[in-house]
Amino acid sequence: MYESVRYCEMCRDCGAELECRGVQALVDGRLRWDVESACSACGFAVAVCGGDLPSERRDQLLAEHGPATLRVSGPSAKNAVIMRVLRAELGVDLVSARVLLGRVLSGDCSGTLPEMELLARGPRASGIAAAVTRP
Fold first, then answer.
1. CB–CB of 11/18 below 8 Å?
2. How far apart are CA 14 and CA 41, in angstroms?
3. pLDDT in tens, 50-90
4. What secondary structure letter does DSSP report for 36?
5. Are 128 and 85 in contact (CB under 8 A)?
6. Least-confidence region, from 34-43, 73-82, 94-103, 116-125
7. Residue 69: its pLDDT value, please?
8. What phi and psi values does residue 117 have, to the nearest 5 degrees?
9. 2: part of which helix (H) or strand (E)?
10. Are 129 and 103 within one domain?
């Protein structure tokens, strides 16, 4: 599960336009941000793997691909299970998990496709039907 974006930065070696391709991927149950960059002017090239997704690139992913939404279905009796999974997956307190549960149940929990897929894996592992969709 991945999404990618292209963008340009200034080459550190010559100051020309550096072409960059960033990929946010879900690898071995973790989110990962990889970037490959190449300068057509001087030949400088670099690959940086396993970094954190910069906020401006996350915004670009969302703008270019649209947000993905986590949806769960099943009896409301499983709300406690969903909250327990959200707390365990995200390391949030009970109040934050309750707020997030409300967002999930109302279809208002969204982010990049890899982020939502990572979040959906916990409920699925607990037997809760969880799907990641795009409007």
1. yes
2. 8
3. 889 999 999 999 999 999 999 887 665 478 888 888 888 88
4. E
5. yes
6. 73-82
7. 95
8. -65, -40
9. strand 2-10
10. yes
